[in-house]
UniProtKB/TrEMBL annotation, chain A:
<feature type="transmembrane region" description="Helical">
    <location>
        <begin position="39"/>
        <end position="56"/>
    </location>
</feature>
<protein>
    <submittedName>
        <fullName>Monovalent cation/H(+) antiporter subunit G</fullName>
    </submittedName>
</protein>
<keyword id="KW-0812">Transmembrane</keyword>
<dbReference type="Pfam" id="PF03334">
    <property type="entry name" value="PhaG_MnhG_YufB"/>
</dbReference>
<keyword id="KW-0472">Membrane</keyword>
TrEMBL record, chain C:
<feature type="transmembrane region" description="Helical">
    <location>
        <begin position="164"/>
        <end position="184"/>
    </location>
</feature>
<dbReference type="InterPro" id="IPR001750">
    <property type="entry name" value="ND/Mrp_TM"/>
</dbReference>
<protein>
    <submittedName>
        <fullName>Proton-conducting transporter membrane subunit</fullName>
    </submittedName>
</protein>
<feature type="transmembrane region" description="Helical">
    <location>
        <begin position="6"/>
        <end position="25"/>
    </location>
</feature>
<feature type="transmembrane region" description="Helical">
    <location>
        <begin position="299"/>
        <end position="319"/>
    </location>
</feature>
Automatic annotation (TrEMBL), chain E:
<feature type="transmembrane region" description="Helical">
    <location>
        <begin position="6"/>
        <end position="24"/>
    </location>
</feature>
<protein>
    <submittedName>
        <fullName>Monovalent cation/H+ antiporter complex subunit F</fullName>
    </submittedName>
</protein>
<keyword id="KW-0406">Ion transport</keyword>
<keyword id="KW-0813">Transport</keyword>
<keyword id="KW-0050">Antiport</keyword>
Automatic annotation (TrEMBL), chain G:
<feature type="transmembrane region" description="Helical">
    <location>
        <begin position="624"/>
        <end position="642"/>
    </location>
</feature>
<feature type="transmembrane region" description="Helical">
    <location>
        <begin position="159"/>
        <end position="182"/>
    </location>
</feature>
<feature type="transmembrane region" description="Helical">
    <location>
        <begin position="321"/>
        <end position="342"/>
    </location>
</feature>
<feature type="transmembrane region" description="Helical">
    <location>
        <begin position="202"/>
        <end position="218"/>
    </location>
</feature>
<feature type="transmembrane region" description="Helical">
    <location>
        <begin position="565"/>
        <end position="585"/>
    </location>
</feature>
Amino acid sequence: MNILIGIIITLGTLFVLLAAVGLIRMPDTYLRISVNTKAATLGIGLLLVGVALYFYDLSTTSRAFIIILFLFLTAPVGAHLIGRASYFIGNKLWDQSKMDDLQGKYQRNSHILKSEIDDTPEDNVDHEKME
Amino acid sequence: MEILLAILIGLLYAAGIYMILRRSLVKLIIGIILLGNGANLLIFLLGRITKGLPPIIPENSEVFTEAYADPVPQALILTAIVISFGLQSFAIILVKRAHKVVRTDDLDEMNATDEDS
Amino acid sequence: MMQHLIIYPLLFQLFLSIVLMFFWNKINAQKIISIGGSIIAVALSAYVFYFVWENGTQKVNAGDWDAPYGIVFVADTLAVTLVLLTALSGLAVSVFSAGSVIKDRLRFGYYPIFHFLLLGLTGAFLTGDLFNLYVWFEIIIISSFVLITIGGEKAQLEGAVKYFTLNILASIIFLTAIAVLYGLTGSLNMADLAGKVAAVENRGLVEVAAILFLVGFGTKASIFPLYFWLPASYHTPPAAVSAIFGGLLTKVGVYALIRVFTLIFVGDVFLGEILMVLAILTIFSGGVGALVQNNVRKVFSYLIICHIGYMIAGLGMFTEVAITGVIFYLIHDIMVKTNLFMVSGIIFKIKSSNSMRALGGFYANYPKLSLLIFIPLFSLVGIPPLSGFWPKISLIGEGFKTESYWTVAAIVFASFITLVIIAKLWAEVFWKDAKEIPEKPKFEYFSDLNKTKKTQFIVPIVFLSLISLYIGFGAEHIQILSARIANELMNSQQYIDTVLNNS
Amino acid sequence: MKNRFVSNILLTFVWVVLTGDFHVSNYLFGFILSYIILMVITRGSKKAKYFTIVPRLIFIILFFFWELIKANLEVAWEVMTPKLNMTPGIVKVPLTVQSDAGITLLANMITLTPGTLSLDVSNDKKVLYVHAMYIKDKDKFIAGIKNGFEKRILEILK
Amino acid sequence: MTLVEYCRIIILPVLAFSVILILVRFFKGPSIADRIVALDLLITTGIGIIGIYTITSGSSTLLDTGMILALIAFLSTVALSYYLERRSKKK
Amino acid sequence: MKTIILRTASNYLLPVLLMFSIFILLRGHYLPGGGFVGGLVAAIAFVLHSFANGLKNAKALLKFHPGFLMPAGLALSFFSGLSPMLFAGDPFMTGLWYHGHVPVLGSIGSALFFDIGVYLVVVGVTLTIIFTISEAP
Amino acid sequence: MLLAILLGFLFALLLVFAGKFFKGKFAVLSSLIPLGLFVYFLQFIPEVMAGEIMKESYNWAPSFGVNLGFTLDGLSLLFCLMITGIGFLVFVYTSAYLHHHKYLDRFYGYLSVFMAAMLGLVLSDNVISLFTFWELTSISSFFLIGFNNTQEASRKSALTALGITGLGGMFLLAGVIVLGNIAGTYSIAEMLNMAPELIKGHQYYSVAVILLFGAAFTKSAQFPFHFWLPGAMKAPTPVSTYLHSATMVKAGIYLVMRFTPVLGGEEIWNTTLIIVGGFTMLYSAIHSLFRTDLKGVLAYSTISALGILMFLIGMGTTESFTAAAVFIVVHALYKATLFLTTGIIDHQTGSRDVTKLSGLRKVLMPVGIAAIIAAISSAGIPPTIGFLGKELTYEATMHAPIIATVLLVGIIITKILLLWAGFVAGIKPFQGKLPDNLKDTKMPGPLMWVPPIVLAVLSLVFGILPFIIEGSLVKPVVAALGGESGEIHLALWHGFNTVFILSLVTITVGTILYFVIKPSAKLETSIGKLEFISPKSLMERFNIGFTYVSSFWTRVFQNGYLRNYVFIIIFFLVGMVGYTMVGSTKFNIDPAILSNISFYELVVSIIMCIAILFTVFTSSRLSAVVAMGVVGLTICLVFVFYSAPDLAMTQFSIDTLTVILFVLVLYRLPRYLKIQDHKMRIRDGILSLLFGGMIAVLALEVLSEPVNTEIGDFYAKNSYIMAHGKNVVNVILVDFRGADTMIEISVLTIAAIGVFGLLKLRLKRTDRVQ
Ligand code: NA
Ligand code: NA
């Protein structure tokens, strides 16, 4: 049993470590958000599963479960918000990015997001890729 | 760990005072918050830190059977934290209002009430 | 129920605050509740005072947990005296507020906060627990923050930023001191600490803790060089607020110093000397500060500092007679300073200014009011037999006995400079011809007020002036009281025994 | 009405798990508590057929975890290898799901799977903008989402 | 090596090391959004550390703290994003 | 912030957070938690809601001004502190306990009501502060 | 006696409410009070002559040793009679002098208070009550001098007078307290009963003497405190007459006389009095030459006379005491007369400039008679009592215990100059030709001219019949001073002796001088050139200097810069604590008590450390806020590591809320200032680090002390069993220390109300600063 827990925990830790490395290595904010949200959630999820197994009682298990639930509920929303804010404040995409469909679709002041580019481009958030 | 904590507490106090000594309203608040944190940690440290059980009596037991952390400093800090929260919120708003009315962030320019009038 | 009597004043103020909050938008109801409540509070405090006077020091264990484990409220003579004085000032200012504080301010919780402040003061005087004292201090400073900023005028906010910062700083230092003391002794109960601190072998650490307390409380008491927040802010809020501040806020710092230095850190020579030096500098700074001010309220603010010096000096001498003088002065000063800031309020209401240069003509136009104001003014100076005179006998006499000549010189200097300042103020504000101050449009002048409001301005001043006169002419009673308090303070074993159930 | 009842039961369950106390009284308490909370917060009513959902829900969760692990490994590889072989970008994904809940669920699932991040939904709810690490083929990528998560979500919400 | 020892000697240091890496990003920024992301990950990792710490200390009560962290950490992100948005609107 | 994702998520998170806050409140006497943290969590729930759906919406949800919770909570705490004086002749803040085990809550005593008062005050205070700030120009 | 004193106070109180009644015709009725009192005191003469001492005592504040104890002996009686007698005449005179004045009632009020205070002063046996009355005379004199308070000059001289006499009051306060501490009693009678060496041999004897002299010299206008008195001439003439020649200024003389038997006889006592008195008499007698204002001349001659009195008391012989006693009477009579006549001249002609007044005998004959008699008395020409006084003075000086010849020369010169002054004030305005502009001068009503006549007549009567005052006043006074009253025999004619020759010389030289030196504006200007070294101008310069120092001191400390305030406070704290810690604590940090450091703890510490530094040094506000979030998180982890889950939870929730708060207001807040002041940063940095270092060392030192967990253990033991809770921290919060929590939630509530008010309350412009 302990070995199983050990493996699960090790995996979890590795994911967390990966997220940390990713956070450093990724070249733009969006990629960092990407890496962060999941590796950590999965990593922490595994760690907590390990903890639940270790104590193996109902109260710990339920708490671990709830933490995982909360993380899964909140992390993507947070990522969405910070990613979107990032775009507003002008964080540019990595220069090797393939495309930016968002370009020109946010209205600068109302922050209304359109599905198509319309004829008021001067009002829209529009930035080039990173130099 | 005590040595590290003592240094950190010292650093919090130092940073707090240093920030208060700057001339900016925002830094003033940050300084106060840092000082508050320092004081809380100081109570924690001087109440003697231990890695025993949290001060929660285990299930199926009426008293502690193992070593436990002193609950008193914890309760004191809890009170202090909450009080600081009240004061800090007030401070933040005070600064916002002061900035709006006095129209400066420079504390050096807020000296009219000390002048003879 | 009788055995819990001593915390009734405290519970009652809390009750009042809560009730007042439920009447949030009903200003007139608030006025009635506050004034009526304050009268009851005076009655309660007076009864508690009487009870303690007759039966000696009382205590209540909150939560029924014995000291030093629970929080204990202790009513010795000093505590009940200050509680009574708080109630008296509270009543006066409550009435004065009804007349003088404008509607908009009342609509934003003036009265509940005012009673919270009184609650804080009452609690601070009654508690026997150091951390609990900290919490009471916090309620005092947060309510004073709110009161000092209420209305949010430019000057108020500027003053408030300084008031706020320095008071918070003091609180944090106080908290640091508690941490050190708890770390050394593992106790928070002041009576318990008395014994435990005495048993600590590392006296240097005890001294450091004492200094931390000195700085923390000293800032609240506004002693040199910690007083800066006071002249920067006390003249900015409405007069009613200044009145309660001027009367009681610094005094709670003095109270805490007295309590701590007579109970926990007893008889340290080094500290006594420091206190004495600080007292001299406090007196000097306050005196010369008041001398060069033009704003009436700023003059009073600096005089607060100056006179705090008396009390600190007496504490520094640390003899029973000196402490008697300190207590007498404390009693006198609370009444007079509260009164004087109300006076500044009425002056402002009449002429829409507090500048001595701009004011004048009061004696010609308001002779009876002037004579009324004469009482607190010259009580402050300590012209015998008015109230401020008596404690000087004890303080100067002990100054010679303890050979602290510089302190005596400082006390004499303070008396003299107060005389000069008040005489100057009298000449400027009351004697000098009235100057034409351009009328402020829509300013509600005193003469525009209806009779009720005028009464609400005058009655509290008369009330406190009568008390001041009583303190002066009935000095014997006050002296007996002060002497008993000093005796209790200097022989703290009785306090300790009461709290810790030793027999 | 039904919706509320279902939420109520679900919340009761959450409560019981939360407290770890499985006595009847605790169910009752949880029920009352959640009833009160729902009463406080519910305005208007949203319709959903909860009882058909459950099996599909389980399926989608399993699918989700599978995606999660798969993509995680992919990202792990990317991070560990010295060279960055990504072809990132922001892709506009047209939406078939219309309900707020559906869109949110989809967006969150996309975000939780590594390599992709739902940046925003257009105000007319027609498109979802997704940032992805590997866009070899835009259409293929879009199709992957539409046939994967979205299809299953649509099934649940049907 | 018992599991507890394993956690203390290997897992916790590795997690701590991860935290240092995250902190590096926190410093490098370059944009404030990167710092917020770093803070977010820091807190998430903190939950992990707390989890492992419950194993090494043997007291599962500490996991309660993790619950709070998991639930409200996200609110900082919400608030900070909210701020960034409002600020960018103002420009 | 008008985002569908946040709005929808917060609609689901709100009840969960509120329930969680009460959970934290009630277990406080036995396990970590209590009125403070519980109150903070509840307040945070509403704050989140106000971020997602706008302040007006969040206020409408509450149906009364959050400031009202402050005197209410204070009164509750005050009277639970006072109750031993009124009913048992014990000092202020003495615990009055109903002897016997009550399901879910464990022992019921004045301390519980005191803690509920704390909870209400904390919610009231936090929301008053944050709502006021959000409204301020 | 108490009633006699209270009468004046009661009358003043009555005037506050019924002043109108006394403003009109009935004003003169108020003089019945001093008259009644005068008669009352007259009836004590037989007892006093018999050597009896009347005593009365009322309890007041026995805890202080203060009672209202009154003693009536010869000295008191002399003063009482002067106070009430001259008081009566002044009251009468005033009713005409200030006829129909708007504030006549107030004037009478002040006069009554003053008279009462003066009576209290001379009757008090208890030194504290003596001090009380002393201060009351200062205050009432403040009001009297400032009676015309809308004039700036009046206010200024009132303030100066109060300043100087107030200063004296402080000396007296300190003096009587020292004396009380030396003697162990505040009662003068009891001090007299003590063995003299107990007091005179005490280490604080000279302190007490110097303090008492400080009081006496200021009140009695001795050099260098004399200058307030000429200034006080701004007051209406009745005040000058009453306070500044006859009574109040003699309070200092009274004080010295009163304490002569207690403290006198020692060298410091006698020498100081002789030197100060002697210098004063000469200095101001010379000064009187240079005045053209009649009141100015009188003021300086008054100071001179007060100097003579001090000088006489200082010699400490029976002869000198006798001379002093007589001279008090002499001076009171002639000086009051001259003031009153001067007042009449002023009142009727509108001028007091002696260079412009002459020939007034033609229009103001009765006044002239009074003035001339007074002038003769002041010159010491027989048969006035002034002659007697001068003879006694010379006699006493000739037998002075030290440097008699020098002193004699001094006193003769003084007397010559005083003769000049008396003639200038009493004769000059009436002799010569009446200028045209004064031809219409009218005689005042009898209420004004009778009082000076009465006084002048008394000067004559006492001169011719000295036995009237010999037994009733002089002997008892000398007895009260401790002299041998048996030796005294007053007679106008003492025989043709040295003293008589000296008298003749004095009169002759003085008269010649009177005809040689005429008061002139030129002379007045010439002395004006020396003004800058006069005590008055020195005092004024001191005032200016002191005000400057005050402003400077206040500006240095209260300079408006918050950061300076914080700096000073922390500097003070660091200094004090540092001094103590370096001085008296041992740096015995015990490594054994410290737990070892795990890697993850180290990492958390490093993170906290870096985050703190980042918070401090980042240039972006938002980054600082985020970094504070990191600090909060690490603190939270520390709490977790050391078994404080409740704390960790609360800390984290509150940190999150703080971030939210910040964020909500941050974009309304200013950006950081860009201020580059490296010196300041370094200074602040050093202080901050010292402060932080001090706290850290302090923490470690405390940790090395033994630990006491008694209270925590009690809580842990009873938490479940007695308080029915298992989370001890929570049980502490809601039960063991529930009172804290009750207050704490109140604090939160107040903060919320404050925030609400700060943000929602907007005062209308008109309501500002109300
Ligand atoms: Na708790
Ligand atoms: Na209890």
